[in-house]
Amino acid sequence: MAIRTVDLKPIFVNKAFADFFGYSVAKMFSLPQEKALPEETMALYATHIRPALHTGQSWEGEYFIRKKDNEVILVWGRFDPVLDASGNLANVISIMQDNLTCTKTAKALKVSEDKFRLLAENITDVIWTMDDAYNFTYATPSVEDVWGYALEKLKELSLLKITLPESHKILKKAEKARSRAEAQGDFDHINRLEMEHYHGKGGTIWVETAVRRLFTEDGKPGGYQGVSRDITLRKQTEAALFERESRYRTLFEDSPISLWEEDLSRLKIYFDALKENGVTDFRQYFYDNPDALAKCATLVTVVDVNKATLDLLSAKSKEDLFGNLEKVLTESSMAAFTEEMILLASGGCEYCGEITNRTLEGETIWVVVHFFVPPEYKDSLARVIVSLLDVTPRKRAEQALMDSEERYRVLAENSQEGVIVIQDREIKYINESMTEIFGLSTEELEQVHPLEMVHPEDKPFIHEQFKKMYEGKEKEGFATFRVITTHDEIKWLTISVKPIMWEGQEAQLEIFTDITHHKTLERELLSTHAQMEDRISKRTAELSEANVQLKALAEERGKAQQRILALTQELIRIQEDERQRIARDLHDNVAQNISSIMLKMETLFDDHSCVDERLRKRSESVTDILKEVVASVRDIAYGLRPPALDQLGLVKSLQHLCLEAGNKHGFAVDFVATGVEDISLDFDSEINIYRMIQEAVRNIVRHAHANKATIRLVKSHPDIFIRIEDNGQGFNVLERQAKTLTEKRMGLRSMEERARLVGGSMEIQSLVGTGTRIIFRLPTHHSRRHTDYEYHDR
C-alpha cells in the first residue's frame, strides 16, 4: 500500500509495495515515475483513473509496472481518492495485491503514541493551591508557561473564570465524586480532571489536573491542592491517532482482498507444552495423533475479518461467519491447515499455498492463502494475518482450457485440412487428412515432409517465403503453391505456419488446405471477369454522366434549402418584430388610453355631490371593467413581447415565466440556470430560447396534466443545453409528429424550427404514462447583446 499525491509522487510507501518494484522503501521516494511506471500506465492513469478519482470514485483493475531490472509486469491494483474538506482530490491511496498488513499499522500507531506520550509527560507541571471558591492562592513559576498568566494576575482570577463553560460540567462531576468519597471516609480522594482553559496569551489549552482536598489543623476543609500539566499536544495527538487508526481500519475493512486477524497465543502455549514433553517431529506427531490436530483447530481465535471476507464466503455478517467456520473447511483446506500447524510448531512464520474453501451457500471456491506472523508477535503468536485471494476464475479457466484442448484435438482429427505438428525438426503429430491430400501413409509422411513435394516451378518462391522462418527471424508464415503427388497429380495447396506450445515446449503448427477446386473456379472466374470488365467500363461512363447531373441537382436543392432556412429565419424575426410593434402599440397607446378613460370614470362625479346611487354604481362597474381591460391588454402585450427579456435578461425572464405559469395553473416548476449569466447571447438566440421554453411550458399546461416540471438551462462549452421534464401523462412521439400537420398543431414543429434556426437540435423523449422530456442543444454565440424597446408602467 502507498499514499501518493495526485501526480503519483509517494508520500508513504510500505515495504510490500516497494518489494513489487524491487527497490527499498527509501529509494521509492526519489524514484522517477518513468522508472516505475511505463507510458501506457501513465496514459491509463491520465485518461481513466485520475478523472474517476476527481469525482470521488475508486478505480481497480490491471496495469503494468516496471521493476528494478526493467522487467515490465502486470499487476492488479486499486486506487482510492482522499478528499479534503471541500471535496477536492488531495491524495491517492494505491493498493496492490499484497496490501498493507494490520500488524505494521498497529506497530506504527504504537510508536507514534509512545512518542507523543513521552512529549506530553515531560512538559513542566504547575503546582498550585486554591481556596474553597477556586481562587488561586499559590502557584509555581511554571504557571506562566502553562496558563500564560503571571502569578499575581492569576490570583485575581478563579479557576472558573479561566475554564471554558463546557468544562464546568467536568468540575461539577468531580465535586460529586469527592463528596461521595468523603462521605465514605476517604478524605485522601484525588480527582483527575482534563479540562479546556483560556490561555492568557489568547486561545485555549487542555490541562490535566490532579486535585486533592486540603484540611485545616482542626480537620475542616480548607481549599484544594493540585498539579496541572499542559496536555494540549497530547489531546491533539490523540485526535490524530484516532483519525489515523480510523483510516487504517478503513483500509482493512475496504480492502478488496480477504483479510483475517487471528490470535494463536493459546496455540503457542500448546506447542510449547508438546516440546517440553519431547515432541520434535511435529509432522509425524500430527500424523500419529489426529486428535491433537483437531485440538489445534479449537485453539485458533479469529479476532476480525474484513468485508471482502464476508463477500468471498457469502456470509451475511461476521457473527454468521464465526458461527459457521466449520462449513468453510474442505479436505484441501484441512491439508493446508495441517501444514500451517507443522510450520508454526517448528518455528516458521510464513506460509503460502493454494486450497479450496466452501462458501456458506455451499459453493466451492479456489483461494491462495497467505499466512504471516509479524516479527513482533513471533514469540507469542498473539497476532497473525491471513489473506485469501480468490483464484476461482483462474482455476475455472484452466479447466476450460483443458476442455478446449480436448475439443481442438477432436477437431484436428476430423478436420478436412491437413495438420502437422513439428517440434525440433521432428514430426510429432499428423492427422488423417494429410494422407488423403498427399496420397501417402502416415509412416511415409513422417519420412518425407510435404514441402519436399513442391512443384519445381514453385520451389524458389517457397524457399523465399520461408527463408526468415528457417533463419529463426519469424515464427509465422503463409503461402500458396503446387505439389506433385505420388500419382503425378498436380494439386494447389495453402500452408499456414504458426507457433504453438506442445507438451509444454515450443512447436510449429502447419495446416495444409487443398484449394485445387478453388483454383479451377478461379480460372473460370477470370475469364468471366474479363467479359464483365468491358461491360462495366461502358456502364461506368453512363453512370458518370448521370452522376454529374445528380450533383448539379443536389447543389440546386442545397441552395434552395439554404434559401428556405434564411426565409424562415427572416419570417420569425419579422414575426417577433411585428409582435414587438403590436405589443408597444397595445402598451403605449391602447392601454394608456383606456387607463385615461378609467381615471376619468373614477373622477366623473367628484364635483357632483348629489348623484343618483344607481348611476354611481353603474359608473363604478364600468371602471372595474376598464381595469380588467387594461390588465388584459398588458398581459397580451407582455405575451407578445416580454419586457423582462429586455430589462432583466434571459435568466430572470425565464424565472418569471416559470413562476407565473406555476402559480397560475397550480403545478410546481423547478427552474435552474447554470453558467448562462457569464455569456452574452445575441437577440435572436435569446428570443428563440425564450419562445422554445415558453411553448414547452404552454404544452405542459394544456396537455400534460402534470403537477411538477423541471427546467434546466446549462452552459457546457461549446453548447447550451436545455432540459425540460414533466411527470404528466406523456404521449407517443411518432404518432404525435404524424398528426402535427393534419391537426395543424405547430407547437412542437415551432420549437424544433427555432432550435434549427440557431444551429441547434431538439430531442423529444416520451411514453404514455411516463411523462415527457425535451432536450435542446444550442451552440453559443458571443455577440453583442442589444435591446430595442423598454416598457415602463405608467
From TrEMBL:
UniProt domain PAS: residue ranges: 112-184, 404-473
Claim: Nucleotidyltransferase is one of the keywords in the record: no
Predominant subcellular localization, coarse grouping: membrane
Domain of life, per lineage: Bacteria
PROSITE patterns reported for this sequence: PAC, PAS
Species for this entry: Pseudodesulfovibrio nedwellii
Lineage of source species: Bacteria, Pseudomonadati, Thermodesulfobacteriota, Desulfovibrionia, Desulfovibrionales
Keywords on record: Cell membrane, Coiled coil, Kinase, Membrane, Transferase, Transmembrane, Transmembrane helix, Two-component regulatory system
Alphabetized InterPro entries for the sequence: HATPase_C_sf, HATPase_dom, PAC, PAS, PAS-assoc_C, PAS-like_dom_sf, PAS_4, PAS_fold
Coiled coil, from the record: 536-570
Domain PAC positions: 191-243, 351-403
Name assigned to this protein: PAS domain S-box protein
Subcellular location: Cell membrane
Topology in the lipid bilayer: Multi-pass membrane protein
PANTHER family: NITRATE/NITRITE SENSOR PROTEIN NARX-RELATED, SENSOR HISTIDINE KINASE NARS
